[in-house]
Design goal:
Length: about 230
């Protein structure tokens, strides 16, 4: 029996897809994980699913197709409106329910208050899916405020937060940022991986993920049932 988990972030472009690509590169084949972004916006060039598949060079079997693919780089409710569509939140949740006991990394669209529809926020979807959540946070200036607000919102709505994971450029603020978020946020830091210093090909990226991501297994051990371990 597996377990799906939800990856959300403190905002748009904070590093959720980078985290997801690292996770998939390191663990997808060993634990038969799939990547899934149910609602994908901004596909004028390429989708996050296509990006992760390309950078990890994983087979198509490790990816689930989005339920909604929308062209505009905007919040789901607005991107759908531009194409005369409306996202069916009940349908999204029903599809999540079907795979909740499978090893699936589910990446959300934007931050926790991004609307799926005019009446339905991503936060509600996270709540109603009742999956463990990893919050991806930035290593840069401003992350303390954004991270603590996000954690406060999630925890006060009884969302099961496995912890937060920091990504971004290396800088002198990182150590204090992590310590402060842990102190006031009430959850553990699951790790930190900086951006690579240069563009990597798939083989190099897999090697980078294996050496630099989740070094102490805090992420995988927090979301994977013990029975699934080897």
């Amino acid at each position: 029996m597996g377990r799906a988990f939800f990856v959300t972030g403190t905002g748009t472009d904070v590093g959720k897809t980078y985290f997801s690509s690292l996770f998939m590169a390191k663990y997808a084949q060993k634990y038969a994980f799939q990547y899934w972004k149910p609602i994908q916006t901004g596909i004028l060039e390429s989708s996050d699913t296509q990006f992760i598949q390309k950078i990890t060079n994983l087979p198509i079997e490790n990816f689930r197709l989005p339920l909604y693919e929308l062209k505009a780089p905007a919040s789901p409710h607005y991107a759908a409106k531009l194409e005369n569509q409306e996202i069916d939140s009940k349908f999204v949740l029903s599809e999540i329910t079907k795979i909740r006991k499978q090893n699936v990394l589910i990446e959300g669209a934007g931050g926790i208050f991004v609307p799926w529809t005019d009446q339905y926020l991503s936060l509600r979807g996270i709540q109603e899916s009742n999956l463990d959540v990893v919050l991806v946070v930035s290593s840069e200036l401003g992350t303390i405020n954004h991270s603590l607000m996000s954690l406060d919102i999630l925890l006060n709505r009884f969302v099961p937060v496995a912890g937060f994971y920091m990504v971004g450029p290396n800088n002198s603020l990182v150590e204090d940022n992590i310590a402060t978020i842990q102190k006031f946020g009430g959850v553990s830091c699951l790790g930190c991986t900086f951006f690579p210093s240069q563009k990597l090909n798939p083989e190099e990226f897999r090697n980078f993920a294996n050496s630099e991501f989740d070094r102490d297994r805090s992420v995988i051990d927090s979301i994977l049932p013990v029975d699934d371990e080897d």
